Amino acid sequence: MKQFTYSKALERLPEQFFAKLVDKVKRAEAGGKEMINLGQGNPDQPTPPFVTESLKRAVDNEVYHKYSPFKGFPFLKRSVANFYKREYDVDLDPETEVAIMFGSKTGLVEVSQCFLDEGDTALVPDPGYPDYWSGVAMANANMEKMPLFKGNQFLPQYDQISEETLHKAKLMFLNYPNNPTAATATKAFFEETIDVANKHDICVVHDFAYGAIGFDGEKPLSFLQVPGAKNVGVEMYTMSKTFNMAGWRVAFAVGNKSVIQALELVQDHYYVSLFGAVQEAAAEALDNGEESVKELVELYETRRNQLVEGFRDIGWRVDAPQGSFFMWLEIPEGFTSESFADYLIDEIGIVVAPGVGFGEYGEGYVRIGLLESEERLREAIDRFRTLSFTNQ
Ligand SMILES: Cc1ncc(COP(=O)(O)O)c(C=O)c1O
Q1: How many domains does the chain have?
Q2: Residue 16 sits in which domain range?
Q3: Claim to verify: residue 125 and residue 208 sit in the same structural domain
Q4: Model-level pTM?
Q5: What is the CATH number of the domain that holds 146?
Q6: pLDDT in tens, 169-227
Q7: Distance (Å) from CA 363 to ligand 1 centroid
């Protein structure tokens, strides 16, 4: 068969680091090993029944069998605006300040296409969610890393970025609660971000994928809650984590009108909007999901407590995450994050995500997900207990 040459944009796409890990796990399982997978970010709970029931009802609505309106149904945009008002006391104009997207992965790649030309610069967190890199690479733009260090609560330090780089930057990606470090942002940090963005004309994209998941009674801060945020950027919010709807592919962007318009413009050319019945079920989740989200956060907090106590009990040093459904664990001496992840697979059948997969500053850590049952997490701790060393 003919092998056609890929476009340069496609050739530039970064390697999917975690595909290698998935292969390794499959091989180990094929060899008869029973694995506990703490390496992935796929929510383990089902979508709440009131949402799936809503989809079932909506599927028979013939209005939805036709093409959806290009920008999505106005009722979903209204539900988004009401959700932001209820949850964050943020006012949004549903028509001009909300864009409906096919999952936030899509939006995060599209936004680079909207604002970056060849040679432009984007600021990305390192460690960070790898899809930020994909859009920047496709646009043939440059990526400037903003290292996230424990000593600075895994927040970027703008005073460590040169004026020249800040001046060149057109886009900045941020993500709190953070994947992979589980850090949360402060109001002061967002205020500083807005100052930097205003001064240097940078468009801020705040990825709020774990916005619903905060612990110890602390609700993670929306970027849009901070005065001036709408002027300098957007927040992307996925239904995947808040409502266990990862397979449904529904997300939205909210905030700056020109960014919303750009996202809708690019989407007009790629797609017609999501299946109307999915939009109706998404609206149902946003309107009536408060209780189910509360239960989900309680579940993750129980698992977090269990893992933190479990690790401490067997002599491992861990910081209790404040948000997201991840823990960011320092690795023992003598390993790299990859060699430690391999070691855990081979020796105790535990899968974790090597920190280096999230960028060079992720080295020294592995990411652990809270996405297994309490029984399996207990078993995971028992397996760690059999190791003859810790990270102390
Ligand atoms: C930080 C972050 N952003 C975005 C996404 C993508 O979410 P989705 O494409 O399901 O909306 C994920 C998924 O794991 C994530 O961890």
Answers
A1: 2
A2: 8-46+291-385
A3: yes
A4: 0.97
A5: 3.40.640.10
A6: 999 999 999 999 999 999 999 999 999 999 999 999 999 999 999 999 999 999 999 99
A7: 21
Burial of 170 per CB tally in 10 Å (0-12, 13-18, 19+): middle
> How many residues make up the chain in this entry?
392
Ligand 1 pocket test target in 104, 106, 133, 236 with most atoms within 8 Å of CB? 104
- Whether residues 331 and 354 fall in one domain: yes
> How far apart, in whole angstroms, are the C-alpha atoms of residue 91 and residue 81?
7
How far apart are the CA of 212 and the centre of ligand 1, in A?
Answer: 13
Which residues surround ligand 1 with Cβ inside 6 Å? 41, 103-105, 129, 175, 179, 207, 209, 238, 240, 246, 251
Atom number of ligand 1 nearest to Cα 246: 10
In a domain, 66, yes or no: yes
For the CA of 179, the nearest atom of ligand 1: 1
Cβ–Cβ under 8 Å, residues 137 and 116? no
| Helical spans, DSSP H, in 44-186 | 49-58, 74-88, 104-115, 131-138, 163-168
Cβ-in-10-Å burial (0-12, 13-18, 19+) of 63 comes to exposed
CB atoms closer than 10 angstroms to residue 18:
16
